[in-house]
Amino acid sequence: MPISGEFFKEFLRRASAIQKECETFCHKKGGATWRLPELYDSLITESELIAVTRRLFLDGHYTQAIEEAYKLLNNSVKYRANVSNDGSSLMKSVFSINNPCLRINGLKTQTQRDQQLGYMEIMSGCMIGIRNPRAHEHNFRDDPSTALELLTLANHLLRVVRRSSKSRRRKQRSP
Description:
Elements: H1 5-25, E1 26-29, E2 32-35, H2 36-43, H3 47-58, H4 62-81, H5 87-94, E3 102-103, H6 110-136, H7 144-163, E4 165-166
Antiparallel strand pairs: 1-2, 3-4
Helix pairs in contact: 2-7, 3-4, 4-5, 4-6, 4-7, 5-6
């Protein structure tokens, strides 16, 4: 029995739909197929982050999930430090090496000071290079791999913020 043109068109339409569904819910790496929900659940462990990003991520709203993650990071730092500034300047102020609101360690050795400075720069850079483009560019698009990588970074940074200790800030002298 020969295959009709209509049958072939329908077959291709269905195959295309299945392919799109696989691209949405599966991620291929090194020949293994991983389900996105399993990957997400194994990598993202901070409860607040899960609350604001899981549904977005699983529904394929990768860019919005990333934006929400970094807004959460920003607001978590604001809340924990009890300050009102925002974004890069917030991170540079709160994690400053000289007069931090939040310390990620004791700041006693050069290595500890380097770590404080490094995380300050990372968090500042995240506001400029990750959060802002997604918040200000209407047509920004992310793929599942990028989303998982950036959500995993946000997860780590949120844990750093949660584990940081509050400092008594010295009043800055006016010139």
